[in-house]
Amino acid sequence: MAQAPTVYAAADLRHRLDALPRFHLTELPTPLLELPNLTRKLGGPRLLMKRDDLTQHGLGGNKNRKFQFEVGAALAQDCDVLLWGGGVMQSNHARQCAAAARRAGLDVVLVLNEGPHGDELQGNRLLLDILGADVRPTGRDGMFGHEADLAATAEDLRAAGRKPYVIDYGPLTSIGYVECVLEIHEQSQALGADVTHLYVASGGGTQAGLELGNRSLGAGYAIRGFSPLVVDGGRTAQQAAMANATAELLGLDVRVRAEDIWNSQAFVGPAYAEATPEGLDVIRLVAETEGIFLEPVYTGKAFAALLDDVRRRDLTERDTVVFLHTGGTPLIFAYAHELGESSQPTG
What we know:
Layout: H1 10-18, E1 32-34, H2 36-42, E2 46-51, H3 63-76, E3 81-88, H4 92-103, E4 107-113, H5 123-130, E5 134-137, H6 147-159, E6 164-166, H7 171-191, E7 197-201, H8 205-217, E8 222-226, H9 236-250, E9 263-264, H10 277-290, H11 299-311, E10 320-325, H12 331-334, H13 336-342
Parallel strand pairs: 2-10, 3-4, 3-6, 4-5, 7-8, 7-10, 8-9
Antiparallel strand pairs: 1-2
Helix pairs in contact: 1-7, 2-10, 3-4, 3-7, 4-5, 7-8, 7-9, 8-9, 10-11
């Protein structure tokens, strides 16, 4: 007979999270808001939005949750510089990393690939410049292939007498989203919302933390993750490994299997960070109905997936859906050309 999964009380889970070093970057919880106008317009499920775009540092976004723990660890280890690589010049992660480092009195070095709009001093790239981040271009495009450059940069910093904290894809990457599920669980109960689904743009740690938190609380949410990029074989194996490393760090008797994670690459479009017509349309829809801004790389594509599920009746009036807004507001300005074109009549 199979053993029933271990379920933890909210207070127990919060106690485990609070035991870890943390550097304060934002007030929590972030708001969980009804989307009444969009709910009426679509005539489908009850829609709510978890506003992690409103975390309070560096123009907000989901990465502030993890940086609270990563900066806390860096300070506990007496590091003097944050080092990260693997993104592109318009990276939300890079912008939030630089802002978190400055708040903590640390230097920041970023090893970044080019990516769309990477040569434009706009959006996140402009903010990196204003933050005085030490940006070291790899000369490559896309999201990957940075590992050797990152390792060499870390060695150069150590040789110069610095003590870098190298941000990697470990348990602290996803731990903030264990806490996010805890917030959703408590806030939805206060709203009288029986949440059935949680939609999110994620190909990594954000969904990994959600999956672990969901299982730890026994919340039973159907989590629908939408990757912003295409990876051969998908990302679920990496996400499961990350979730399980986080469970070990927190002392949770919970395990996540790759086959139990739902993550789709169907809404990526031509390539990572390339805007899609569906994503651009939904940015205008959500802005015009609720006064909330999505962006073209992550949240616009994930919300387009949610809208597609409503239209195909995979989500109905019986469902209550939370869309997790992971931020990225500066990208709206970097993609002004694409958004401007999408407003022009066709035909």
